[in-house]
Amino acid sequence: MYRSLFSIPRRDRDKEWVYFCGHSLGAQPKAAPSYVRRALEQWSWEGVGAYFSKRSHWIDYADRLRSKLAPLVGASPESVAIAHTLTTNLHLLLASFYRPTPRRYYILTEQHPFPSDRYALQSWADKLGYPDAVRELPTLVPTTEEVIAEIEKIGERLSGVWMSGVHYLTGQYFDIERITTAAHRVGAWAGWDLAHAVGNVPLQIEAWNVDFAVWCSYKYLNAGPGAVGGLYVHPRRWEEASILAGWWGNRLETRFLMRATFEPAPDARAWMHSNPSPLLLGALEASLDIFSLLDLQAYYAQVRDLHNRLRVQLEGCPFVEILTPRVQHGAQVSFRLKVPSPRQAFEILLDQGFFVDWREPDVIRAAPVALYNQPDEVDSFASAVVALERIRA
Predict the structure, then answer these.
(1) Residue 249 and residue 261: Cα distance in Å, rounded?
(2) What confidence tens digit (pLDDT) does each residue in 130-158 have?
(3) For residue 392, what pLDDT is reported?
(4) Which pLDDT score, from 0 to 100, does residue 393 have?
(5) 83 with 160, same domain?
(6) Distance from C-alpha of 165 to C-alpha of 194, rounded to nearest angstrom
(7) What distance in Å separates the CA atoms of residue 202 and residue 370, rounded to the nearest whole number?
Protein backbone atom coordinates (compact mmCIF):
# COMPACT_ATOMS: atom_id res chain seq x y z
CA MET A 1 0.00 0.00 0.00
CA TYR A 2 2.80 2.40 0.95
CA ARG A 3 5.59 0.06 -0.06
CA SER A 4 7.60 2.78 -1.81
CA LEU A 5 8.04 4.53 1.57
CA PHE A 6 9.87 1.54 3.08
CA SER A 7 13.22 -0.15 2.60
CA ILE A 8 12.53 -3.85 2.17
CA PRO A 9 15.30 -6.03 3.66
CA ARG A 10 17.50 -7.70 1.08
CA ARG A 11 18.85 -11.23 0.75
CA ASP A 12 21.75 -9.84 -1.25
CA ARG A 13 22.46 -6.74 -3.30
CA ASP A 14 19.90 -7.52 -6.00
CA LYS A 15 17.18 -9.51 -4.24
CA GLU A 16 14.64 -8.41 -1.67
CA TRP A 17 13.21 -10.81 0.85
CA VAL A 18 9.52 -11.51 0.86
CA TYR A 19 9.56 -9.97 4.31
CA PHE A 20 6.80 -11.33 6.54
CA CYS A 21 8.45 -10.51 9.87
CA GLY A 22 6.84 -7.17 10.65
CA HIS A 23 5.48 -8.84 13.79
CA SER A 24 9.09 -9.06 15.01
CA LEU A 25 10.86 -6.04 13.49
CA GLY A 26 9.10 -3.76 11.05
CA ALA A 27 10.71 -2.58 7.85
CA GLN A 28 12.57 0.73 7.95
CA PRO A 29 10.74 3.82 6.72
CA LYS A 30 12.97 5.37 4.06
CA ALA A 31 12.56 8.74 5.76
CA ALA A 32 13.86 7.44 9.12
CA PRO A 33 17.53 8.28 8.44
CA SER A 34 16.63 11.91 7.70
CA TYR A 35 14.63 12.21 10.94
CA VAL A 36 17.49 10.73 12.94
CA ARG A 37 20.01 12.86 11.05
CA ARG A 38 18.01 15.95 11.98
CA ALA A 39 18.44 15.11 15.67
CA LEU A 40 22.15 14.46 15.15
CA GLU A 41 22.54 17.81 13.42
CA GLN A 42 20.67 19.56 16.23
CA TRP A 43 23.02 17.95 18.73
CA SER A 44 26.02 18.98 16.62
CA TRP A 45 24.91 22.61 16.27
CA GLU A 46 23.28 23.28 19.62
CA GLY A 47 24.62 20.76 22.11
CA VAL A 48 22.53 20.69 25.28
CA GLY A 49 20.85 23.88 24.11
CA ALA A 50 18.80 21.71 21.74
CA TYR A 51 16.63 20.76 24.70
CA PHE A 52 15.41 24.32 25.07
CA SER A 53 15.91 26.08 21.73
CA LYS A 54 12.97 27.18 19.63
CA ARG A 55 14.44 25.23 16.70
CA SER A 56 14.77 21.84 18.38
CA HIS A 57 13.01 21.93 21.76
CA TRP A 58 13.82 18.36 22.71
CA ILE A 59 12.41 19.00 26.17
CA ASP A 60 8.91 18.07 25.01
CA TYR A 61 9.69 16.12 21.83
CA ALA A 62 8.09 12.95 23.23
CA ASP A 63 5.09 14.93 24.44
CA ARG A 64 4.53 16.37 20.98
CA LEU A 65 4.47 12.90 19.42
CA ARG A 66 1.64 11.74 21.65
CA SER A 67 -1.03 13.22 19.38
CA LYS A 68 0.39 11.21 16.48
CA LEU A 69 0.52 7.96 18.44
CA ALA A 70 -2.71 8.17 20.45
CA PRO A 71 -5.09 7.33 17.54
CA LEU A 72 -3.29 4.00 17.07
CA VAL A 73 -4.21 2.88 20.58
CA GLY A 74 -7.53 4.70 20.76
CA ALA A 75 -6.74 7.04 23.61
CA SER A 76 -6.44 10.71 24.43
CA PRO A 77 -2.88 12.01 23.98
CA GLU A 78 -2.72 12.89 27.68
CA SER A 79 -3.26 9.23 28.60
CA VAL A 80 -0.14 8.17 26.69
CA ALA A 81 3.56 8.53 27.48
CA ILE A 82 6.42 7.68 25.14
CA ALA A 83 9.35 6.39 27.13
CA HIS A 84 11.54 3.45 28.16
CA THR A 85 10.92 -0.05 26.79
CA LEU A 86 8.02 -2.44 27.18
CA THR A 87 9.22 -4.50 30.13
CA THR A 88 10.49 -1.47 32.05
CA ASN A 89 7.10 0.17 31.58
CA LEU A 90 5.37 -3.00 32.73
CA HIS A 91 7.43 -3.06 35.93
CA LEU A 92 6.61 0.60 36.58
CA LEU A 93 2.89 0.00 36.13
CA LEU A 94 2.80 -3.19 38.15
CA ALA A 95 4.44 -1.23 40.95
CA SER A 96 1.44 1.10 40.80
CA PHE A 97 -1.40 -1.33 40.24
CA TYR A 98 -0.50 -4.71 41.71
CA ARG A 99 -1.50 -4.35 45.36
CA PRO A 100 -2.15 -7.90 46.53
CA THR A 101 -3.89 -8.87 49.74
CA PRO A 102 -4.17 -12.32 51.34
CA ARG A 103 -7.66 -12.57 49.86
CA ARG A 104 -7.10 -10.91 46.45
CA TYR A 105 -3.73 -11.58 44.87
CA TYR A 106 -4.02 -13.69 41.71
CA ILE A 107 -2.99 -12.36 38.28
CA LEU A 108 -4.56 -14.08 35.29
CA THR A 109 -2.59 -14.16 32.05
CA GLU A 110 -2.71 -16.08 28.78
CA GLN A 111 -1.16 -19.47 28.31
CA HIS A 112 2.41 -19.14 27.07
CA PRO A 113 2.71 -15.35 27.49
CA PHE A 114 5.76 -13.59 26.08
CA PRO A 115 8.61 -14.50 28.45
CA SER A 116 9.45 -10.99 29.63
CA ASP A 117 5.81 -10.45 30.64
CA ARG A 118 5.84 -13.69 32.62
CA TYR A 119 9.15 -12.72 34.25
CA ALA A 120 7.79 -9.31 35.28
CA LEU A 121 4.57 -10.73 36.70
CA GLN A 122 6.44 -13.41 38.62
CA SER A 123 9.01 -10.90 39.88
CA TRP A 124 6.31 -8.81 41.55
CA ALA A 125 4.45 -11.83 42.84
CA ASP A 126 7.67 -13.10 44.46
CA LYS A 127 8.68 -9.67 45.73
CA LEU A 128 5.35 -9.10 47.45
CA GLY A 129 5.16 -12.57 48.95
CA TYR A 130 2.68 -14.34 46.64
CA PRO A 131 4.83 -16.72 44.57
CA ASP A 132 1.83 -18.71 43.30
CA ALA A 133 -0.08 -15.61 42.15
CA VAL A 134 0.39 -15.94 38.39
CA ARG A 135 -2.28 -18.11 36.80
CA GLU A 136 -2.26 -18.97 33.10
CA LEU A 137 -5.35 -19.74 31.07
CA PRO A 138 -5.87 -23.48 30.61
CA THR A 139 -5.91 -23.38 26.79
CA LEU A 140 -3.54 -21.78 24.28
CA VAL A 141 -6.24 -20.39 21.98
CA PRO A 142 -9.24 -19.76 24.24
CA THR A 143 -12.58 -18.30 23.29
CA THR A 144 -13.59 -15.05 24.94
CA GLU A 145 -16.19 -17.00 26.89
CA GLU A 146 -13.47 -19.29 28.27
CA VAL A 147 -11.39 -16.31 29.38
CA ILE A 148 -14.39 -14.72 31.09
CA ALA A 149 -15.28 -18.03 32.75
CA GLU A 150 -11.78 -18.23 34.21
CA ILE A 151 -12.05 -14.65 35.51
CA GLU A 152 -15.36 -15.47 37.15
CA LYS A 153 -13.95 -18.71 38.57
CA ILE A 154 -11.17 -16.84 40.38
CA GLY A 155 -13.63 -14.09 41.26
CA GLU A 156 -12.86 -11.96 44.30
CA ARG A 157 -9.44 -13.59 44.63
CA LEU A 158 -8.37 -11.92 41.36
CA SER A 159 -6.16 -8.85 41.70
CA GLY A 160 -5.76 -8.25 37.98
CA VAL A 161 -5.79 -9.56 34.43
CA TRP A 162 -2.67 -9.09 32.34
CA MET A 163 -2.91 -10.28 28.75
CA SER A 164 -1.63 -9.53 25.27
CA GLY A 165 -3.90 -7.68 22.89
CA VAL A 166 -2.53 -10.02 20.20
CA HIS A 167 -0.77 -13.17 21.36
CA TYR A 168 2.83 -13.21 20.13
CA LEU A 169 2.81 -16.95 19.35
CA THR A 170 -0.67 -17.69 18.02
CA GLY A 171 -1.59 -14.27 16.59
CA GLN A 172 -4.93 -14.35 18.42
CA TYR A 173 -6.55 -10.93 18.86
CA PHE A 174 -8.27 -11.04 22.23
CA ASP A 175 -11.54 -9.26 22.92
CA ILE A 176 -10.03 -6.50 25.04
CA GLU A 177 -13.29 -4.76 25.80
CA ARG A 178 -15.21 -7.80 27.04
CA ILE A 179 -12.30 -9.22 29.02
CA THR A 180 -11.64 -5.83 30.65
CA THR A 181 -15.32 -5.52 31.57
CA ALA A 182 -15.29 -9.01 33.07
CA ALA A 183 -12.20 -8.17 35.16
CA HIS A 184 -13.83 -5.00 36.50
CA ARG A 185 -16.99 -6.93 37.30
CA VAL A 186 -15.10 -9.02 39.88
CA GLY A 187 -13.21 -6.01 41.24
CA ALA A 188 -9.92 -6.57 39.39
CA TRP A 189 -7.88 -4.32 37.12
CA ALA A 190 -7.14 -5.09 33.48
CA GLY A 191 -3.77 -4.33 31.89
CA TRP A 192 -2.68 -5.15 28.35
CA ASP A 193 0.51 -5.81 26.41
CA LEU A 194 -0.10 -4.16 23.03
CA ALA A 195 3.26 -5.02 21.45
CA HIS A 196 1.67 -7.10 18.68
CA ALA A 197 -1.53 -5.06 18.56
CA VAL A 198 -0.59 -1.41 18.05
CA GLY A 199 -0.45 -0.58 14.35
CA ASN A 200 -1.90 -4.00 13.56
CA VAL A 201 -5.49 -4.10 14.84
CA PRO A 202 -8.08 -1.43 15.74
CA LEU A 203 -7.82 -0.35 19.37
CA GLN A 204 -10.04 1.87 21.53
CA ILE A 205 -8.47 1.20 24.91
CA GLU A 206 -9.78 4.34 26.60
CA ALA A 207 -13.38 3.68 25.56
CA TRP A 208 -12.91 0.05 26.62
CA ASN A 209 -11.87 1.26 30.11
CA VAL A 210 -8.50 -0.48 30.07
CA ASP A 211 -6.67 0.45 33.27
CA PHE A 212 -3.16 0.47 31.82
CA ALA A 213 -1.18 -0.83 28.86
CA VAL A 214 2.35 -0.96 27.48
CA TRP A 215 3.84 -1.59 24.05
CA CYS A 216 7.04 -1.56 22.07
CA SER A 217 7.39 0.37 18.81
CA TYR A 218 9.66 -1.81 16.72
CA LYS A 219 7.09 -4.27 15.36
CA TYR A 220 4.15 -2.91 13.40
CA LEU A 221 5.12 0.67 14.34
CA ASN A 222 8.41 0.28 12.42
CA ALA A 223 10.46 2.47 14.77
CA GLY A 224 13.62 0.39 14.59
CA PRO A 225 15.51 -2.09 16.78
CA GLY A 226 15.39 -1.23 20.47
CA ALA A 227 12.91 1.54 19.74
CA VAL A 228 11.44 3.73 22.46
CA GLY A 229 8.31 2.17 23.97
CA GLY A 230 5.04 3.53 25.24
CA LEU A 231 2.57 3.28 28.09
CA TYR A 232 -1.03 4.16 28.75
CA VAL A 233 -2.87 4.91 31.99
CA HIS A 234 -6.61 5.58 32.04
CA PRO A 235 -7.42 9.12 33.24
CA ARG A 236 -9.48 7.85 36.17
CA ARG A 237 -6.30 6.18 37.47
CA TRP A 238 -3.97 9.19 37.39
CA GLU A 239 -4.74 10.44 40.87
CA GLU A 240 -5.27 7.16 42.71
CA ALA A 241 -2.21 5.17 41.64
CA SER A 242 1.05 5.33 43.56
CA ILE A 243 4.08 5.98 41.38
CA LEU A 244 7.74 5.03 41.45
CA ALA A 245 8.99 8.55 40.90
CA GLY A 246 11.62 9.56 38.38
CA TRP A 247 12.91 12.98 37.38
CA TRP A 248 11.40 13.07 33.90
CA GLY A 249 7.97 12.30 35.38
CA ASN A 250 8.08 15.59 37.28
CA ARG A 251 5.97 18.44 35.97
CA LEU A 252 7.70 20.08 33.01
CA GLU A 253 7.17 23.51 34.55
CA THR A 254 9.24 22.67 37.65
CA ARG A 255 11.43 19.81 36.41
CA PHE A 256 14.54 21.93 36.10
CA LEU A 257 14.09 23.65 39.43
CA MET A 258 15.60 20.45 40.90
CA ARG A 259 13.35 20.43 43.92
CA ALA A 260 13.65 17.66 46.50
CA THR A 261 9.93 16.88 46.35
CA PHE A 262 8.49 15.06 43.33
CA GLU A 263 5.69 16.92 41.57
CA PRO A 264 4.12 14.39 39.21
CA ALA A 265 3.05 15.43 35.75
CA PRO A 266 -0.74 15.72 35.62
CA ASP A 267 -1.24 12.78 33.27
CA ALA A 268 0.40 9.55 32.05
CA ARG A 269 3.77 11.31 31.80
CA ALA A 270 4.07 10.95 35.59
CA TRP A 271 5.23 7.37 34.98
CA MET A 272 8.26 8.50 32.95
CA HIS A 273 11.67 8.11 34.57
CA SER A 274 14.19 9.11 31.93
CA ASN A 275 14.29 11.45 28.98
CA PRO A 276 13.75 9.48 25.75
CA SER A 277 16.52 9.83 23.18
CA PRO A 278 15.71 12.30 20.37
CA LEU A 279 17.43 9.86 18.02
CA LEU A 280 14.91 7.14 18.89
CA LEU A 281 12.03 9.60 18.83
CA GLY A 282 13.06 10.65 15.34
CA ALA A 283 12.86 7.07 14.06
CA LEU A 284 9.44 6.66 15.66
CA GLU A 285 8.16 9.94 14.22
CA ALA A 286 9.19 8.88 10.71
CA SER A 287 6.82 5.92 10.98
CA LEU A 288 4.03 7.79 12.76
CA ASP A 289 4.01 10.33 9.94
CA ILE A 290 3.24 7.47 7.53
CA PHE A 291 0.41 6.23 9.74
CA SER A 292 -1.00 9.76 9.79
CA LEU A 293 -1.60 9.44 6.04
CA LEU A 294 -3.88 6.44 6.52
CA ASP A 295 -7.60 6.00 6.90
CA LEU A 296 -7.08 3.64 9.82
CA GLN A 297 -10.30 1.67 9.44
CA ALA A 298 -9.58 1.08 5.74
CA TYR A 299 -6.02 0.12 6.64
CA TYR A 300 -7.10 -2.46 9.21
CA ALA A 301 -9.47 -3.90 6.62
CA GLN A 302 -6.47 -4.34 4.29
CA VAL A 303 -4.56 -6.04 7.13
CA ARG A 304 -7.40 -8.54 7.50
CA ASP A 305 -7.63 -9.01 3.74
CA LEU A 306 -3.97 -9.98 3.43
CA HIS A 307 -4.25 -12.33 6.41
CA ASN A 308 -7.33 -13.98 4.93
CA ARG A 309 -5.74 -14.25 1.50
CA LEU A 310 -2.90 -16.27 3.02
CA ARG A 311 -5.15 -18.18 5.39
CA VAL A 312 -7.54 -19.41 2.71
CA GLN A 313 -4.69 -20.82 0.63
CA LEU A 314 -3.04 -22.53 3.61
CA GLU A 315 -6.33 -24.00 4.81
CA GLY A 316 -6.41 -26.05 1.63
CA CYS A 317 -3.21 -27.87 2.63
CA PRO A 318 -3.91 -31.12 4.54
CA PHE A 319 -0.54 -30.90 6.30
CA VAL A 320 -0.97 -27.32 7.59
CA GLU A 321 -2.48 -26.65 11.02
CA ILE A 322 -3.34 -22.97 11.52
CA LEU A 323 -3.21 -21.79 15.14
CA THR A 324 -4.53 -18.27 14.61
CA PRO A 325 -8.31 -18.01 15.12
CA ARG A 326 -10.37 -17.47 11.99
CA VAL A 327 -12.01 -14.25 13.19
CA GLN A 328 -9.80 -12.90 16.02
CA HIS A 329 -6.60 -11.85 14.27
CA GLY A 330 -4.47 -9.11 12.77
CA ALA A 331 -1.79 -9.63 10.15
CA GLN A 332 -0.09 -12.68 11.63
CA VAL A 333 -0.79 -16.25 10.56
CA SER A 334 0.76 -18.84 12.88
CA PHE A 335 0.81 -22.42 11.70
CA ARG A 336 2.37 -25.84 12.14
CA LEU A 337 3.48 -28.17 9.36
CA LYS A 338 2.66 -31.85 9.79
CA VAL A 339 5.81 -33.07 8.08
CA PRO A 340 8.62 -35.31 9.37
CA SER A 341 10.96 -32.32 9.88
CA PRO A 342 9.11 -29.01 10.36
CA ARG A 343 12.41 -27.24 10.92
CA GLN A 344 13.71 -28.47 7.57
CA ALA A 345 10.54 -27.16 5.92
CA PHE A 346 11.12 -23.78 7.55
CA GLU A 347 14.70 -23.68 6.27
CA ILE A 348 13.48 -24.46 2.76
CA LEU A 349 11.14 -21.47 2.90
CA LEU A 350 14.04 -19.25 3.97
CA ASP A 351 16.22 -20.60 1.17
CA GLN A 352 13.49 -19.66 -1.28
CA GLY A 353 13.50 -16.06 -0.10
CA PHE A 354 10.59 -16.01 2.37
CA PHE A 355 11.57 -14.25 5.60
CA VAL A 356 9.25 -15.78 8.19
CA ASP A 357 10.22 -16.89 11.68
CA TRP A 358 10.28 -20.01 13.81
CA ARG A 359 9.17 -20.42 17.41
CA GLU A 360 9.97 -23.56 19.32
CA PRO A 361 8.95 -26.25 19.21
CA ASP A 362 7.27 -26.16 15.79
CA VAL A 363 5.44 -22.88 15.03
CA ILE A 364 6.03 -20.76 11.92
CA ARG A 365 4.82 -17.15 12.08
CA ALA A 366 4.16 -15.11 8.95
CA ALA A 367 2.76 -11.58 8.98
CA PRO A 368 2.03 -9.90 5.64
CA VAL A 369 1.96 -6.20 6.60
CA ALA A 370 -0.40 -4.12 4.50
CA LEU A 371 1.90 -1.08 4.62
CA TYR A 372 4.58 -2.75 2.54
CA ASN A 373 3.62 -6.32 1.59
CA GLN A 374 1.69 -7.14 -1.55
CA PRO A 375 -0.92 -9.75 -2.56
CA ASP A 376 1.42 -11.46 -5.03
CA GLU A 377 3.92 -12.02 -2.20
CA VAL A 378 1.20 -13.74 -0.21
CA ASP A 379 0.34 -15.94 -3.18
CA SER A 380 3.95 -16.93 -3.85
CA PHE A 381 4.50 -17.79 -0.18
CA ALA A 382 1.34 -19.88 -0.04
CA SER A 383 2.44 -21.74 -3.18
CA ALA A 384 5.84 -22.40 -1.59
CA VAL A 385 4.17 -23.86 1.50
CA VAL A 386 1.90 -26.07 -0.61
CA ALA A 387 4.96 -27.30 -2.52
CA LEU A 388 6.39 -28.67 0.75
CA GLU A 389 4.12 -31.64 0.11
CA ARG A 390 7.17 -33.30 -1.42
CA ILE A 391 8.94 -33.61 1.95
CA ARG A 392 6.01 -35.26 3.72
CA ALA A 393 7.10 -38.75 2.79
Answers:
(1) 12
(2) 999 999 999 999 999 999 999 999 999 99
(3) 63
(4) 57
(5) yes
(6) 5
(7) 14
